[in-house]
Structure prediction request, 108 residues.
Amino acid sequence: MTEAAKQGDTDAMLKLIENHDSEDLQRCWTWVYLAELLGNDLTKDDCVAIHENGSPYDDDIGGPLFVDGRNGVKLEPIGEEQGATAHRIAREIFEAIRRLRNSPDSYR
Prediction:
């Protein structure tokens, strides 16, 4: 799962934060910062209204409304030094992802 996260998989980053790396705040913040560099804010809620069958909710149809999605990640703050390290590591991983994606051998 760590390798998937290091390749830009934000779902893997979420799973690592929630399950595997939860005791390592610096590592969790690294995933949050990396996701931000990739255009995803893991700290924001991402919920949508749906019908019972999972289709997007349409109030013209009516009926029961269900909420699907996820709550944003809530992490304790970290110190300035740890935060700087987390940012640095996230940037390093991000640059590696960009190099890989821009490589002529990469699959698009």
Observations:
- The first strand starts at residue 46 and ends at 50.
- The chain has a mean pLDDT of 88.
- The beta strands are 46-50, 66-70.
